[in-house]
Q: What sequence folds into this?
C-alpha cells in the first residue's frame, strides 16, 4: 500500500465528511466506507493499521463525542472484518454493501455506547434511527466508491477477482 496516498485519501474523505456532507441529516459515512474497503482489499496487518487510523480521523471530526470511541470501534471491527474476509470473500457489490451496512450499524452503536460510558450523558434522540439510515446510505454508495479509492491508493482490485474459465 502506498501510505502517502492513503493519508491524502483519508484527509480528503475527512474534509468532505465534515464540510460538504455535514449539511444533510442522513448521509453516507465516507470513513466507514473506506474502513470496509481497506479491510477487504488490504493485507490484514495493513487493514488493522488503516482501521485505527480511520477511527482516529473519525474521532477528530466527531465533535460532540469524546476522543477515542471511534478509534476503538473502527479498529476493532476493521480488524475483525479483515480476518473474516480471509475466510469469507467479500467481492461482489451486494456483499460489500451488506458488509458496510452491518459494520456501520454495529461500529456506530459501539461508538455511542463507549461515549455514553465515558461521558455519562444520555444518548441523543433518535440515535439508532440516524445510525440505521447512515449505514443504509453508506451501504448503497460504498461499493461504487471502491474503484476510485483503489485507483487513488494504488491497490489492484483485479487480482482479487475470480478467474474466468476458458
A:
Amino acid at each position: 500500500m502506498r501510505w502517502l496516498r492513503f493519508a491524502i485519501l483519508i484527509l480528503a474523505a475527512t474534509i468532505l465528511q465534515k464540510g460538504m456532507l455535514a449539511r444533510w441529516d442522513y448521509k453516507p459515512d465516507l470513513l466507514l466506507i473506506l474502513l470496509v474497503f481497506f479491510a477487504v482489499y488490504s493485507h490484514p496487518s495493513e487493514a488493522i493499521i488503516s482501521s485505527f487510523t480511520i477511527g482516529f480521523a473519525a474521532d477528530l471530526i466527531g465533535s460532540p463525542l469524546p476522543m477515542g470511541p471511534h478509534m476503538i470501534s473502527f479498529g476493532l471491527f476493521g480488524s475483525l472484518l479483515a480476518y473474516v474476509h480471509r475466510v469469507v470473500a467479500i467481492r461482489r457489490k451486494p456483499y460489500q454493501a451488506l458488509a458496510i451496512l452491518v459494520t456501520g450499524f454495529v461500529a456506530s452503536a459501539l461508538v455511542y455506547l463507549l461515549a455514553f460510558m465515558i461521558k455519562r450523558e444520555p444518548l441523543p434522540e433518535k440515535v439508532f434511527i440516524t445510525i440505521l439510515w447512515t449505514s443504509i446510505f453508506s451501504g448503497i454508495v460504498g461499493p461504487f466508491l471502491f474503484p476510485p479509492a483503489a485507483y487513488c491508493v494504488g491497490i489492484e482490485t483485479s487480482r482479487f477477482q475470480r478467474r474466468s474459465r476458458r
Q: What stands out?
A: The chain has a mean pLDDT of 89. The domain at 3-154 is CATH 1.10.1760 (Arp2/3 complex 21 kDa subunit ARPC3).
